[in-house]
Amino acid sequence: MTKKIALVTGGTGGIGTEVCKELCEQGNLVVASYVPIEQEVAENWQKVMLEKGYDVKIEACDVSCYDSSKQLIDTVKEKYGNIALLVNAAGITSDKTLRKMEKEQWKSVLSTNLDSIFNVTKHAIEHMLEGNFGRIVSISSVNGTKGQFGQTNYSAAKAGIYGFSKALAQEVARKGITVNTVSPGYIHTAMTDRLPREIQKSIVEQIPMGRMGEAKEIAKAIGFLCSEGAAYITGANLHVNGGMHMS
Ligand code: CAA
C-alpha cells in the first residue's frame, strides 16, 4: 500500500516531534517543517530521529509568511506527492500583560499561530480535494478556551483556530476531509520549561491530575484524529489537559 503523505508544521518542536513519530508509526511518509533559521538544529534533529528508526523528511518554511507556506506545499508535492494529513503544530508564545505588550508581540504571535493556519491549509487543501481524502488537525490550547493571564495574544490566536476549523469543516465535509482541533493543556516542552519555577508550580496545582502532560499524550490524540477510524469526527475539539479545564 502506498504511504500517505503527512505534513507536520513545527514538526521539530516538542509536541511536533512526538506527532511525527506517531504518524510514522501509523505507516505514513512524514514531512516536518522547521523555521528557516534553525536549519542546523533541524538537520541534527533529523539524524537523531533516523537513529531512533523514524525516517522523517524535513523542509524549511516560515509559516507566518504566505509565499513561504505556498512554496512548502509545492515542494512537498514535487518531492513526495499530495498531502493527505496536515497537522498544524507550529506555535510560539510571547507573554506579557496587555498594558506591557508591544505591538510586535501581538503581531508575531498572531501571525505564527493563526495566520499560519490559513497560509498552510489554504494550499494543502487543494491536494486533499484532488484525492477526496484529508485529515487536518490544528493544535489550539486550553488557553484558547479559558484565556490565560499574560496571554491576550496567544489566547486570541488559539481561539481563532477553533472558528477557522469549524468553518472549514463545513466547507469540505462532503469531500472526505475532516478538520479538527486538539487543545493541549500544560505539556512538558521547552515552551513550558521557560516559565518561572513558581509559575509552573502554581499551574500544576490547578491540574486535577497533579502533573503536566507529556507530548506523547498529545500526539496520541492527534494520531487518532488522523486515522481512518476518525472519519465521522469533524469540526470537533479534543481537550487533552489532565482535567485542568472541562467543557
Ligand atoms: N493571576 C492574577 N494576577 C497575576 C497572575 C495571575 N495568573 N500572574 C501575575 N499576576 C499579578 C502579579 O503578581 C502582578 O501583581 P502586582 O502588580 O500587584 O505586583 C501583576 O499581576 C502584573 O504582573 P507582572 O508585572 O509580572 O506582569 P507582566 O506583564 O510582566 O507579565 C507574565 C507576567 C509574563 C504574564 C507572567 O505572569 C507569566 O509568565 N505568567 C504565566 C503565563 C502562562 O501561563 N503562559 C503559558 C505559557 S505555555 C503555553 O502557552 C502552552 C499552552 O498552550 C498551555
Number of domains: 1
How large a portion of the residues is in β-strands, by DSSP E?
Answer: 15-25%
How far apart the termini lie comes to: 39 Å
Q: Architecture, according to CATH? A: 3-Layer(aba) Sandwich
* Pattern of helices and strands: EHEHEHEHEHHEHHHE
CATH class: Alpha Beta
Bound molecules: acetoacetyl-coenzyme A
Query: In the CATH hierarchy, what is the superfamily?
Result: NAD(P)-binding Rossmann-like Domain
State the helical fraction.
Answer: 40-55%
Q: In this structure, how is the largest beta sheet organized?
A: 7 strands, parallel
* Average pLDDT rating: 97
What characteristic shape results from the CA principal axes? globular
Structural class by secondary-structure content:
alpha/beta
- Please report the number of helical segments: 9
Q: Reading side by side through the largest sheet, how are the strands ordered?
A: 3-2-1-4-5-6-7
